[in-house]
Specification:
Length: about 800
């Protein structure tokens, strides 16, 4: 999930970085480098004509499009104010009136001809990628800063997709426009407006229409590209200005909302039940302009209402909120759905329709079944080692098919912690995590299902270690992924690229040590042999990391997968030592914990911007505070005081935010929703330890934010709320690009607003956005709309906590 070029990751919250530096960084911290779309280095081009090319993150080039007569088209935004172009026509023979095809070209297997005044081509079935079948025209002259309108009419004998691009005709194939149009059996006219970022007197237009299992015939007509277009302005649809948690509010919890209005005077609000009957009324509190959204807002509070029910709404003037519920059983399905995310994204195993439904079932990926090359005998990138590893299994990290140890470590740790909390916290309920409770194929084996899921990843983490007898035995390879960026969309079993191990790193090794140490104490009851294996691996990996303390991942290693570089490792050493100490009680690890420069430093262990894969000390701090261990009473009290100090700061932060979110205006970075969630984990832990209601309430107002009470009036969790994100960036949950594929499964949380605008869609559509408005539910906006294991892990943790509250956990 989020990766980092050295010093470039905003959400890592490095203590030596200013907020301004964090906001202005341009290197994305995740699954795509700024200049390379996911698919582009995987392209094999036809000898005569280039494929789709590279889409660079330049300003002013993202398409804005309208499918006339067809509504919203995938990959584009429907905007009614797109201006008609009146410049010279750049396309030659776009209407095929003379009966010829010149100067159009095509790839070898789909020759075109004029049929009834249209250019038609038989597109072969069984191809893997859009660029396996192309129709195009070259020598188009574009001027930097000029806006252009592309228009064409298309029909197909069966539903098909065209990845349509205007781009360079040679390396590096930078695109000025790229979109995916859904073509049906009735003629549809598509219109797109874009602004050229560079001068180019020899650009090309391409329709990439491969990647379908079955053959079909495509016909194109009235193809036009003209300058002089008026670029339309993107305006997000924010729906009602009355913003609430669209799932609902716990019966005894806080119940607050936000009203966006130009008025500075208090307004009357009314709470109505599903029948429309008035339940409560009151006055809003003017809050002024919210810096995160630049909206003038007012707040309202109906916490005194405790009558359970569905279909509640709040009305202010003529504006009414989305419906919501009040009750205690609101988050049980969110807990199970958020955890199901991990089974959905398992590598190396068939995803069973009986567990996930036919829509989400798929064959095993990366298991050496053609076209896969498999993960069971992976060689090292650039021949940097002379051995292979069997690293099958584990979880696909995010939108790509990569598997990253530093991101997998925090993810599995938070699943383990969610279960461990049920063993250490009064009122926490382990039954919904137990054997037979979750969508995993290991049901009925006598082991809690959440541990079965965690084991799938723990086995992978162990497999990434350098074998015994090698020079760096015990160290862990940093990551495993395709040799080049995987096409979007691509199902794992259809991925034909070579898989490669990337060099070892100290950070990865410490992730293995920490996660394995935690797993060892939890599996001891269920599989002592596996627990012993985990502990041995944890201790040997920790020793290897101590012996090799500064082997850093290369920040430039970002081809085919994220770099995940991290130059500061004091947090990983602290986390690993803490988990080993909790598990073993060994004084060596205790000394490492107490001697760490982070120990006792609330902001050092719990950064206000949220902990993350690059800031992991909090994981160790939370284990020390909650899991029985060999600290003295005084030492334990000091650790717990650190948790409370961090939580106090977050309560104050949330209380000062118009939307109740425990995140400051500078916190809207790549994966901001995960930062919110991890701050909520700190708050929830403080509530578990102290019973202080203020901590609980800040968790719940954070949940309100994620589920709709936010500047965009959008639930960031798929399947939850009337207005939910559902086009997140993912390789095989890609309905926006291919209607035969599903949207993300319910319980998938989007990364959220990212004010750095680190992908072409965000950069072109969201310029000038207020921090909390820098989000778009578009599959191509990977820096705002990705989904990943280490964002869903804290979501599952918090959903479990919230469900326990509703089920009668300590108030």
């Amino acid at each position: 999930m989020p990766w980092e070029l050295l010093g470039a990751l905003p959400h890592a919250q490095r203590p030596n970085r200013t907020p301004t530096e964090q906001r202005t960084t341009t290197a994305p911290p995740h699954a795509h480098p700024p200049s390379v779309p996911s698919k582009d280095r995987a392209v094999t081009q036809h000898p005569s004509h280039p494929p789709q090319g590279h889409r660079r993150a330049r300003r002013g080039k993202r398409l804005l499009g309208v499918a006339l007569g067809a509504g919203l088209i995938a990959g584009a935004i429907t905007l009614p104010n797109a201006g008609a172009a009146d410049g010279p026509e750049l396309i030659v023979n776009g209407d095929f009136a003379d009966g010829t095809t010149d100067p159009w070209w095509w790839t070898a297997d789909n020759p075109g001809e004029v049929v009834d005044g249209q250019l038609c081509a038989d597109i072969p079935g069984g191809t893997a990628n859009p660029w396996d079948a192309i129709i195009g025209q070259n020598d188009l002259a574009l001027t930097a800063g000029e806006s252009y309108e592309l228009s064409y009419t298309a029909t197909a004998t069966a539903a098909a997709s065209s990845r349509t691009a205007v781009q360079q005709a040679e390396e590096p194939y930078d695109t000025e426009l790229t979109t995916v149009d859904q073509i049906g059996t009735e003629p549809t006219t598509f219109t797109h407006v874009f602004t050229a970022g560079t001068d180019n007197d020899a650009a090309q237009l391409v329709f990439q229409v491969g990647g379908k299992a079955d053959p079909f015939t495509l016909c194109l007509d009235d193809i036009s590209l003209t300058g002089g277009a008026e670029p339309p302005v993107y305006e997000p649809d924010t729906g009602s200005p009355v913003r609430v948690n669209q799932v609902g509010y716990l019966t005894e919890g806080p119940k607050q909302g936000t009203f966006v209005t130009e008025s500075t005077d208090a307004q009357t609000w009314t709470l109505n039940d599903a029948s429309g009957a008035e339940v409560a009324t009151g006055e809003t509190t003017p809050l002024g302009v919210d810096p995160s959204s630049e909206q003038n807002v007012q707040g309202f509070d109906f916490s005194e209402v405790t009558t359970p029910g569905d279909g509640y709404t709040v009305t202010i003037g003529e504006e009414t909120s989305e419906p919501f519920a009040i009750g205690d059983d609101l988050y049980s399905t969110l807990r199970s759905d958020a955890l199901a995310y991990f089974y959905h994204n398992r590598s190396g195993i068939e995803i069973d329709a009986e567990l996930v439904g036919e829509e989400y079932a798929r064959p095993a990926g990366h298991v050496n079944v053609a076209p896969n090359q498999g993960d069971d005998g992976v060689t090292c990138w650039n021949d940097e080692c002379d051995y292979t590893l069997d690293a099958a299994g584990g979880w696909y990290d995010a939108g790509d098919h990569g598997k990253y140890v530093v991101n997998g470590g925090i993810s599995v740790a938070q699943l383990l912690s969610s279960y461990e909390r049920t063993l250490t916290t009064e009122g926490a309920n382990g039954e919904p995590l137990g054997d037979g409770a979750l969508a995993v194929p290991e049901q009925g084996n006598g082991v809690p299902d959440i541990l079965d899921e965690a084991r799938w990843q723990l086995d992978f983490l162990l497999s990434m270690r350098v074998p015994e007898g090698e020079e760096l035995a015990g160290m862990a390879h940093h990551k495993l992924h395709d040799a080049a960026w995987t096409a979007l969309p691509t199902l794992p079993h259809e991925d034909a690229q070579p898989r490669e191990l990337h060099p070892v790193s100290t950070a990865a090794t410490l992730n293995v040590a920490a996660a394995a140490a935690q797993g060892a104490r939890l599996f001891a009851e269920y599989d002592p042999e596996f627990a012993d294996e985990l502990l041995a691996a944890a201790e040997s990996s920790y020793a290897a990391a101590v012996a090799n303390p500064d082997l850093l991942a290369d920040p430039n290693d970002g081809i085919g997968g994220g770099a995940y570089s991290d130059a500061k490792l004091t947090d990983e050493f602290y986390w690993a030592a803490a988990e080993l100490f909790v598990t073993t009680g060994d004084d060596t690890y205790k000394e490492a914990v107490l001697g760490s420069e982070l120990h006792g430093d609330a902001e050092g262990v719990f950064p206000p911007g949220g902990f993350s894969w690059g800031e992991t000390a909090a994981l160790g701090g939370l284990s020390l505070a909650t899991v029985p261990n060999a600290l003295s009473e005084t030492e334990l009290a000091e650790v717990r005081a650190t948790v409370a100090e961090a939580a106090d700061g977050l309560v104050e932060l949330a209380g000062g935010e118009a939307y109740g979110v425990p995140l400051g205006v500078d916190g809207y970075v790549w994966g901001s929703n995960s930062q919110v969630l991890n701050n909520m984990v700190v708050l929830a832990t403080a509530h578990d330890l102290t019973g202080e209601t203020a901590y609980r309430d800040a968790v719940l107002t954070g949940l309100d934010y994620l589920l709709g009470r936010n500047p965009l009036n959008l639930s960031y969790v798929t399947g939850y709320g009337e207005r939910d994100a559902h086009n997140q960036h993912h390789r095989f949950w890609a309905n926006q690009l291919d209607p035969s594929l599903p949207n993300p499964a319910a319980g998938s949380v989007a990364g959220g607003p990212n004010s750095a605008l680190q992908d072409p869609v965000a950069e072109d559509l969201l310029q000038g956005c207020a921090p909390a408005m820098c989000y778009i539910d578009d599959i191509e906006s990977y820096s705002t709309n990705e989904i990943t294991i280490n964002w869903n892990a804290p979501l599952a943790w918090i959903a479990s906590y919230a469900d326990d509250l509703g089920g009668g956990a300590a108030e």
